Amino acid sequence: MSATNSATTVATRQQLPQVNEQGLTAEQVTERIARGQTNAVKSSTSRSLADIVRANVFTLFNGIILAAMIAVLLTGSWKDAVFGVVIIINTGIGIITELRAKHTLDKLSILVASDYLVRRDGKDVDVSHNNIVLGDLMWLRSGEQVPADATIVRTWGLELDESMITGESRTVRKGEGDTIYSGSTAVSGMALVKVTAVGEHSYAATLTAQAKVYKKNVSDLNKGINTILKFMTFLVVPLCILLIFTQMHTVGGWHNAIATGEWRQAVVSSVAGVVGMVPEGLVLLTSLNFALAAIRLARKNTLVQDLDSVETLARVDALNLDKTGTITDGGIIYDDFIALPDCVNKQHAMQALFDLSNEENPNGTGKAVLAGLGEQGFSGSSDLQRVPFSSARKWSAVAFHDLPDEDRNGVWYMGAPEVLLSGLSQQYPDVLRQVNEYANNGMRVLLIAHVPNAPVPADFETNPQLEASAVPVAIVLCSERIRSDAEATLQWFREQGVRCRVISGDNPVTVGAIAGKVKLTGDRKPVAMDARELPSDIDELARVLEGVDVLGRVLPEQKKAIVQALHTQQHVVAMTGDGVNDTLAIKEADLGIAMGNAAPATKAVAEVVLVDSKFSHLPDVVARGRQVMANMERVASLFVTKTVYSALISLGVVLMGIPFPYLPRHISYIGALTIGAPAFFLALAPNTRRYIPGFLRRVVAFSLPCGIATGLSVLLSAWFIPRFMHWNVFASSQELFWLRSMCATVLFLMGVYVLARVSQPLRSWRGWLVLAFLAIGVIGVCIPFVANFFAYGLPGGVALAYLALQMAIATVLFVVSLLVFRRFLPGWMKAGISQYKRLKKN
To answer: Where is the P-type ATPase A domain (predicted)?
Structure first.
């Protein structure tokens, strides 16, 4: 269907200027569509499905585990290869989460897919975004986003916000012949433009492609895990080779091993050491917890676009909020019109207020005024000249001349009181005092000023200037609806140690009053400041910000500077926003949070999107991030401890030339009960402690002593038990079976000790968790099926007594080793242990 056929003639709309241009004909439109010269853009990301699958399948972790699993399967001992299931689960989670991100990115577009008014065959018709064609004549009105690059044919005071393109927040007035780029937004006026570039050739398409590039951020947690994996790669290969040679020697050498088939047992024993050194459960649990966090947040209408940003959620200690949409719900109510002494005729001043607000696309305040005055019988005037409201000027104006009522003639201004008053030649301290009194009570205050019977400048619309001779004639009062959940949400952030600042373009006194109503700073009165007084130097700005809670009259470029200043003080900054002028600040922040009703470009660069635009979801966002990171630090200590003792045991076996003290299935059983399953419960436990960088240092500081103590306990058991029991484990498979069962029992006990240390304080459900898995482990080996599957048995008679003695010795050795090794640890590791203990109490 052609664009013209699908378009519908606009029957009812605000009055458009009369123009002679005819625009494209239906035949020309059809021809351009056939040539593909439409504004449709193919939606795709930089990563295809094949790329995603390849990136998640061919990883270092998967390579190590897969090689070990294949080696075990070649021996025919499939029971010892159960650890390989982790590859499937971990890879599946990675692919699913990244596909989810791809799906989200594919739906993003910098341009809002809405209808636009174009002129074809001499008529104005509505056309969808994708059906705009090259050469179209298009009306661009206030509030609309430019859908394609174009050149201005005629303009009626058009002003554009080009912050998405240039980073410059000030609106730019455009004249005939000027080029405008897709992605910018009309903030006032209107224009008739000719489309010069469409689709993928437009400027916005380039920005969209950049925004859609999938960027995998690496968190402190993943960075630590990757460091461990890289270290293990260099350690695993030589240790695995040495283990194979050692285990072949224990079964009579290569010739005998191959002849008798004992090589299979040697390979399985070697794999037991390799698998134990790889923290496969940690990789799995990290992916699972990030995914679960995203799923739980999604159920509360919060979209996490980058799973690794979960760590940033946990570290946030500075939150910059916009007043509208967070503390207030964006709704504005017209309250009162207060005539000042210089007001000659109140009715005429109120009519001027209605005309000032009656723009083609009025803002929220304008709509509230129109609704309030409309109920009182006011309607719009004709034959006036207009300067639309600009966020850069912070005022609008209308001009009348040759009216019968002479006191209505001249120029009327409406805008921010302090801006208008500062531009007048005469001082009005009483008016300013009255404005501040209202603002201190949380009112939104506007000022009406009038230049009576003044000739209207010829360039009034094209080069608007505030006449210094204007006289204040009225104060307009409006108020904002405060969200019912704002006070409770801000209280939660205060309790969690997050410093909230309100950054707004409104009067700082007004914003400060509203912030006080919701107890932004608790019982203390918020400190408010006009952003126009902020220093431009970043370091000086950082110093000033430490004592400021509310900033008003903030220009968009200042938002980015504020984030940069907070970074100089080592703050982790979250930034909320909804407009394109927030994009730079959101990109600069450690965590960008976009409202669901935000501009698509803003949502494209944000890590988190509050789909229903509810500020009350932010505590859930931050709490979920803190829960994942704080708990993952606990469980990472379990996995890294296993890595340390597995490496030490493997090295000890090589040096002592003894059979490996346990099988891969043993480590699967013990790891599941002392690490894997408990870690799952610990990782999902409530925890709101703010994450502190240094994950790897603290984990290593805890795990190294515990791993060494555990490894020595198992190695000494493997060395002394055969000698005490007079067993020849090299010749007797039965005696080797009992030795491995006894060493596995010692390892299980040491694993319970480490679990208990990680789970502290134990006077809680965590203590019961440790006891539960201890009981499950003991009961499990007493069940014949479980014992047979895992090749586990408890000896009787003297061997059982010696096992009890060995476990007691191992316990003492474990405690002594921790105390001894701690004395020789470097300072950074001692500091890490102390910090770990302090944080674990939370």
So the answer is: 117-210
What pLDDT score was predicted for residue 373? 94
Q: What gap in Å lies between CA 164 and CA 75, rounded to an integer?
A: 62
Q: Which fold has domain 302-327+484-613?
A: Rossmann fold (3.40.50)
Structural domain 3-42+115-212, CATH architecture: Distorted Sandwich (2.70)
Q: Residues in the chain, how many?
A: 842
As beta bridge partners, residue 112 has: none
* Tokens of residue 446, six digits: 């506007």
Q: Say if CB 654 and CB 277 are below 8 A apart.
A: no
- Pairing label, strands 528-530, 471-482: unpaired
Between CA 36 and CA 44, with CA 40 as vertex, the angle to 5 degrees is: 115
Quote the pLDDT of residue 146: 87
pLDDT at 7: 34
Chunk the chain into consecutive blocks of 10 residues (it has 842) and report each block's average pLDDT, rounded to whole numbers.
Answer: 35 58 90 87 59 73 74 72 67 69 51 74 88 92 84 87 56 84 79 89 61 51 71 73 74 68 70 69 71 76 73 84 77 89 92 90 83 91 84 84 83 92 91 88 88 81 86 91 86 89 84 88 91 91 94 83 93 82 78 77 76 81 77 82 87 83 83 84 74 75 86 87 79 81 89 89 88 92 86 77 80 75 59 54 52
Instruction: Report d(CA 325, CA 602) in Å as an integer.
Output: 15
Backbone angles phi, psi at 475, to 5 degrees: -115, 130
Count Cβ atoms below 10 Å from residue 674 Cβ, excluding itself. Answer: 28
Instruction: Indicate where the chain has its CATH 2.70.150.10 domain(s).
Output: 3-42+115-212
Cα-based distances in Å from 63 to 284, 305, 663: 15, 28, 21
Tokens read off for 175: 């004249």
CATH topology of domain 332-482: Calcium-transporting ATPase, cytoplasmic domain N (3.40.1110)
| Angle at 620 (CA atoms; ends 618, 624), nearest 5 degrees | 120
Of 199, 198, 160, 163, nearest to 178 by C-alpha is 160
Buried b (16+ CB within 10 A) or exposed e, 361-395: bbbebbbbbbebbeeeebeeeeebebbbbbbebbb
Contact status, residue 304 vs residue 607, Cβ threshold 8 Å:
yes
Q: 483-488: long-range contacts at Cβ-Cβ below 8 A with a sequence spacing of 24 or more?
A: 483/326, 483/327, 483/328, 483/329, 483/615, 483/616, 485/614, 485/615, 485/616, 486/326, 486/327, 486/328, 486/518, 486/615, 486/616, 487/518, 487/519, 488/616
Sheet holding 328-339, edge to edge: 328-339, 471-482, 444-452, 410-415, 395-400, 385-390
What's the rounded Cα separation, in Å, for the pair 217 and 232? 23
The pTM score is 0.60
Closest CA to 157 of 466, 454, 464: 464
Contact, 202 vs 149, CB < 8 A?
A: yes
Query: Which of 3.30.70.380, 1.20.1110.10, 3.30.2010.10, 3.30.230.70 would CATH assign to domain 219-294+626-840?
Result: 1.20.1110.10
| DSSP conformation letters of 335-382 | EEEEE-TT-S-HHHHHHHHHHHH--SS--HHHHHHHHHHHTTT----S
β pairing state of 528-530 and 550-552: parallel
**Could you tell me the end-to-end alpha-carbon distance of the chain, in angstroms, rounded to an integer?**
64
The two three-digit tokens of residue 309, written as one number: 């940003």
